[in-house]
């Protein structure tokens, strides 16, 4: 069996009772939010994204979803599985916002990545014997998913930064990988890093501090938690109009 489908672990998807259509919808949401083109709103210190049902149905005709009600039931499955979180905003209209849920990590990370020391040693291994070549290969295989995951996180975070701040930082530079993996090891998430980017962008854009919108400043350990918990005074969001361009609007006005 192929381990993944559209980048998600099939075994975990089956446990969550998610099928190919659910995963296709999830992939659309994840890829679209990471493009920086979705409306984002910080709710309870977490980023949520406005998902337009009409656009999703139009973009994925292969799913055969013809109505908003059918799509809504699919999204509800993802929410009930804690893969997505849902917020309904009623102000000047009704807007459905979704964020990444706690169980999303289970779809992209296997057990060896989350619990690398959980696998026990064979009972017949003698104390003091050196690892064999085969066991060394197994150790390397256990490390590999973690490396792939960190690289994926780095790409997602730096792509978001480059889109937000119009910069061209590389996601595979040693310094950047070290900073981001350090924050992941501290227990922070991709969404936490995006909140930091958003907070500092709103504070520094158009000022002499804009030059500090860079990985070495944003993700350093000594300031990261402070940046994450910072309350921004002005929230700017974008609204896509019919011409495909974006204009500012604020739900809180």
UniProtKB/TrEMBL annotation:
Protein name: Phage-related regulatory protein
Domain of life where this protein originates: Bacteria
InterPro entries: Phg_2220_C
Domain Phage conserved hypothetical protein C-terminal: 157-229
């Amino acid at each position: 069996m192929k381990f993944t489908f559209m980048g998600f672990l099939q075994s975990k998807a089956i446990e969550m009772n998610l099928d190919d259509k659910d995963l296709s919808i999830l992939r659309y949401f994840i890829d679209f939010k990471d493009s920086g083109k979705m409306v984002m709103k910080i709710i309870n210190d977490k980023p949520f994204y406005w998902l337009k049902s009409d656009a999703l149905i139009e973009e994925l005709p292969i799913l055969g979803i013809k109505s908003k009600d059918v799509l809504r039931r699919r999204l509800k499955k993802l929410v009930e599985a804690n893969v997505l979180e849902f917020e309904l905003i009623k102000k000047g209209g009704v807007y459905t916002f979704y964020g990444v849920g706690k169980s999303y990590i289970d779809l992209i990370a296997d057990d060896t990545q989350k619990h690398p020391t959980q696998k026990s040693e064979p009972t017949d291994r003698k104390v003091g014997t050196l690892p064999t070549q085969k066991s060394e290969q197994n150790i390397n295989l256990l490390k590999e998913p973690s490396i792939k995951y960190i690289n994926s996180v780095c790409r997602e975070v730096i792509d978001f930064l480059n889109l937000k701040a119009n910069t061209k930082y590389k996601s595979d530079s040693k310094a950047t990988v070290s900073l981001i993996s350090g924050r992941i090891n501290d227990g922070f998430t991709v969404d936490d890093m995006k909140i930091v980017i958003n907070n500092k962008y709103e504070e520094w854009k158009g000022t002499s501090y804009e030059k500090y919108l860079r990985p070495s400043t944003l993700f350093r350990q000594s300031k990261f938690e402070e940046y994450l918990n910072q309350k921004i005074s002005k929230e700017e969001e974008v609204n896509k109009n019919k011409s495909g361009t974006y204009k500012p609007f604020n739900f809180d006005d």
